[in-house]
# Entry
Amino acid sequence: MLAIDLGMVSYRNYLAFGRALCNARAQGQIPDLLLFATHPPVITTAHHSEAKEIRWSEERLANADFTVVPVERGGHTTYHGPDQQMCYPVVHLELKELHSFVSDIHEALSMTAAMMGIDAHKREGFPGIWTERGKLASIGLAMKRQVTLHGIALNCTPATSGGFEAIIPCGLPGVVMTDLQTETGQTIGRFGVRSALATAWETAHVRRLDSASKHDLPEHLTDLLTMEITEAVHA
# Structure
């Protein structure tokens, strides 16, 4: 399984890229991947999202440079921004394997938090991992042609963009979002977060990760990361 750091990429570009990777993996053209990325501020809506989950008006969202993108994952409305570490598995699975795969993701996130001295665990009935303060990481997956799409958002620093104030996060009124910096009182560099996530992923999933570059993937796929995309690209 290859681990690739995409760096900062717009969410629309990731979405086009991720969907193309999903199709390529289904056809056996690429191996299983674990992608790391960060995004400029964006709000995504999902299958169970309701209009009331976005608190801000369209004008206020536009003034704050937020885009709103509908996606095919499970769950509700969420925010992503540069204060998060995103982690996207592109993995071929049998449907019967999905439940244990998601359980392993929860374990990997809890292990990542533990490496930083944070006690965080799954809360029954609520995807993601939680501390006593609030929700530290979110999970939202879809499967297309037996390949996973979308993934994990781990909060690293407070969301200064106001992203969590703009919505009802995950459709849970009153939910409090927390982050690694708030929990530890320290700023943990993105390299350290990625390294911890990768180590925990290998342990929880019992799979080796080999570091790679996006340039190791077919060029017609990586071109999607830089092309101008003004609307969500559908598979």
About this structure: The mean pLDDT is 90. The helical segments are 11-26, 58-63, 98-115, 180-184, 190-205, 219-222.
